[in-house]
Each structure stands twice: as structure tokens, then as C-alpha cells.
Amino acid sequence: MPAHSVDAALALIVFLLGALAAGWIAAYRPPYYEPPEAAEAALAELIADFQFQQALYSNDTGLLRAYLNSVVPVNGSWELEVYDLSGRILLRLGARLEGVPAIAVLTGYNGTIGPEYVRIVSLKVEA
Amino acid sequence: MAAYTVSAGLITLVLLATLLILAYHRPALLPVGEGSSLLDAAVAYHVTVNALIHGLSDPLKVKEAIDSQLSHISPLYHRFSSYRILHMDYREGYVGMTVVWKTSYRSEFLTTPMLMVKELYHRYYFDRLVAGWVLESGLMIITDKGYPPRVEFACRCPVNVERVGSTWVIKVIVPERGYSANLTVSDWRGLKVWKLIGG
């Protein structure tokens, strides 16, 4: 009989520990980010523009700023980052923003093909 | 013996509850919205334009250029699963092609880059962003930027564009195939949202 009581007590402890763990997991809220729909739409429009591509590959920051300001709402802010294939940052413009960026990969320019011409373009937009 | 049974039952219950909670709270992947598919279409268009300039009238070179560019694109960024060149068109001073793209999230669109080669200046001119979707009926729809919307179809079929409230209603008529479809377009300037409402 005492053996059974010990057994039941152990089972109770296991149950309580399990309930505690379940409660802790239930209280956990993983971070949630909204899909960057506005940034994706803006970036899709920009990268299709031949002059924007030209500005990107020639590091024409003035023209890039003008393009970004034309697609982002007046009171909105944006952050543009450009990386090469190895992840080295080549350019950063605009305000520092939090959140998920829209990403587009440009694989060359004016018929150029090769890994050295790959540009990973990241855009965050905050309305 | 009863105590053993109760213990086993309780442990099983606790495990089940934990698993259920874990399943309910698993981190969700970011959904693929209209913005993502539009961005994928724009990148695919860029790839095809670049390949066309690179390969010009040599189909093998064009295909190699597309493959080469795709090899540098991580599926984390753009989820292309396959592409197929429907046709290439060569005329004097002009080269164009139509490519159908499929994505891993079961979306289909087509890109139709066109290149005008002016021999005098050796300069290239491009059409604007053209993103198309292949509907189940086989009708190919190509949208273009602009306001009011200009819509072109691969078959150059008659199109009637009307504004109804905040949306555009586009009537498509393809007499030789017997298709007639209405499409609504909302928020034209920002994001192209297509919904087939008849056909």
C-alpha cells in the first residue's frame, strides 16, 4: 500500500511539472511580423525600372533616394540596403527601421551575367 | 496495480496536453501574399530581360543565361520552381519571348520581354513591367503599369475597361476561342490584385 502511495505521489509530481511546462509554453508568444506587402509592391515597381537598375549598379545615391521617395508615401520612411552575393553590404540609405524587409535579387545589368553582378536588394517601408 | 494505471494515464494526459499546446503555438511561416508574387514576377522579368540582351537571337544562349542567373538566386528569396520558354520571336530589329514561370507556392505567371535593337545607335529599348497570369481557361493576361490601366493580351483580343466604384472592371473577349471574362482590379496604383469573376 505505501508503495502505491509513493507511486501516486510521483505521478502527481510528474503531472504538476507537465502542467507547469504546458502553462509556460502556452504563455509564450513568438514574435510576429506583418508580411512586408507595401515594401514588396514598391520594390517590384522599382527593380523593373531600367534607370533604377542603372542607379543601383552605379551607386547613384541621389537618384536612388529620388526613386524611393517617389514610391513611399510622403510621411513614410524607408531603408534600402544592397548586398553582394557573399552578404557584404555595399550600400545603405534611409532611416534605420525594424521589421521584415522585402528582398529582390538582381542578377545582372544590361546583359551582364555572373556572380559578381548579383545584388541582393533589401527594402523596408514604414508608412 | 490501480496506482500504476492512474500514473501512466496521468503522464499520458500531460504529454498529450503538452504536444497539443506545442502544435497550437508552433511558429508560423510568413504567408506568401500578393506582394511576394508581384516581386517574384518582377525578378523573373528582370532575369528574362537580362538573358535576352545577353543571348539576343541565340535561344541556347538565352536559356543558359536564364539558368545561370537562377543558380545565383536562393529559394529563400524567390521561390521559382520551374520555367518554360513558350516561344521566341525574331524579326528585323526586334527580338522577344514569352516565358511561363511556376513558383513553389503554386502560382503561375508569364514574362514577355521584348527588345528593339536599333542598329544605328546600338541601343536597347525595353517595354515596361509586364506581369501576366495564366488562368485555368488558358487565357493569358498581361498587365501593365499606367493609369488608367492598360491591358494587353497575348492574343490581342478586344478589351473593355470600365471603372465601377473603387475598382476597375475589365471585360475580355476572345472570339476565336469563345472566351468572355470579367476581371476586377482594385488598388491599381499600388498593388495589382486580380480576381476572375466570370468567364
What attributes characterize this protein structure?
heterodimer, A: 127 residues, alpha+beta, 2 domains, 4-stranded antiparallel sheet, 4 helices, 44% helix, B: 199 residues, Nuclear Transport Factor 2, Chain: A, 3 helices, 29% helix, 37% strand, disordered C terminus
Characterization of the model:
The complex is a heterodimer of chains A (127) and B (199). Chain A is an alpha+beta fold and 127 residues long. Chain A has 2 domains: 1-30; 37-126. In chain A, 44% of the residues lie in helices and 20% in strands. Chain A has helices spanning 2-27, 37-47, 50-57, 61-71; strands at residues 77-83, 89-94, 102-106, 119-126. Chain A has a 4-stranded antiparallel β-sheet with strand order 2-1-4-3, covered by helices on one side. In chain A, a hairpin with a 5-residue loop joins β1 (77-83) and β2 (89-94). The model of chain A has no long low-confidence stretch (mean pLDDT 86). Chain B has a domain at 34-134: Roll (Nuclear Transport Factor 2, Chain: A). Helices cover 29% and strands 37% of the residues of chain B. Chain B has 3 helices and 12 strands. In chain B, strands 1, 2, 3, 4 and 5 form a 5-stranded antiparallel β-sheet that branches. Chain B has a 4-stranded antiparallel β-sheet with strand order 9-10-11-12, with no helix packed on it. In chain B, strands 6-7-8 form a 3-stranded antiparallel β-sheet. In chain B, β10 and β11 (179-186) form a beta hairpin. In chain B, α2 (34-55) packs across α3. At the A-B interface, α1, α2 and β3 of A face α1, α2 and α3 of B.
